[in-house]
Automatic annotation (TrEMBL):
Transmembrane segment boundaries: 6-36
UniProt name for this protein: Fumarate hydratase
Key words, A-Z: Membrane, Transmembrane, Transmembrane helix
Top-level taxon in the UniProt lineage: Bacteria
Species assigned in the record: Hyunsoonleella rubra
């Protein structure tokens, strides 16, 4: 069915596919929500600081 080099290529393909699959799961469930949440928190902090600065000026 397979020769040895074809078998190794198939195993390499499955390994790369599996690593890519778990990397995408990790990115979509942890990294991207963490990134978006952190940027929203930073934006809210900046707005609060701007409002404080405007209150102190007037």
């Amino acid at each position: 069915m397979f020769e040895f080099d074809q078998y190794l290529g198939f195993l390499a393909f499955l390994t790369i596919l599996t690593i890519g699959f778990w990397l995408m799961i990790f990115l979509l469930t942890f990294v991207i929500p963490y990134w978006i949440g952190g940027s929203l928190i930073e934006r809210l902090k900046e707005r609060r600081e701007e409002k404080k600065a405007q209150r102190l000026e007037s």
